[in-house]
Amino acid sequence: EFKSTLRTNLHTKQHDKKIEHAVLKTIVAFLNTEGGILLVGISDKNEVIGLDKEGFQNEDKMLLHLNNMIKDNIGSIFSGFIKEQVIDFSDKRILKIECSPSNKPVFLKDNGAEYFYIRTNPASELLNGNKLIEYVKRRFNE
Fold first, then answer.
1. How high is the pLDDT of residue 136?
2. Measured CA distances, 61 to 39, 57, 71, 127, 132 (Å)
3. Which of 18, 26, 37, 90 could crosslink 48 through cysteines, CB 3.0-4.6 Å?
4. Confidence band for 142, pLDDT divided at 50, 70 and 90
5. Long-range contacts of 21-26 (CB under 8 A, 24+ apart)
6. Residue 141: what pLDDT?
7. H-state helical runs in the chain
8. Phi then psi for 12, rounded to 5 degrees?
9. What angle is formed at CA 72 by the lines to CA 30 and CA 96, rounded to 5 degrees?
């Protein structure tokens, strides 16, 4: 999966919580299914953008921001399933977020609500109601 940025809206050049939410949604979906790799700094059209547009002072500040996003919106209990690193790719630096499958259901917290996502091919799908209950029973043996 590719995301152009971690937090910056490329059209407005401003930090955007919707962009952060999209990144977190993908991470949660990977954790709830078979895992996966998210590459930040690459557009959906496979164009390598890099991380310069994020506006962080340095890469450590960016990784700290990502870790705080995970802690606040997913839970630090799941950080062991997520490995992030900045890597060189096509003469630019990109962020690689590798997710392993979680052993417990993972919810994305947003404005007091919790959302459960899974990966279905190239998309993150929101599950609720009976679909959520059946998936959790099957996937996590609960």
1. 96
2. 18, 6, 15, 33, 36
3. 90
4. low
5. 21/108, 21/110, 23/69, 23/97, 24/69, 24/70, 24/73, 24/74, 24/108, 25/108, 25/115, 25/117, 25/124, 26/1, 26/124
6. 84
7. 17-32, 59-73, 129-140
8. -95, -15
9. 40
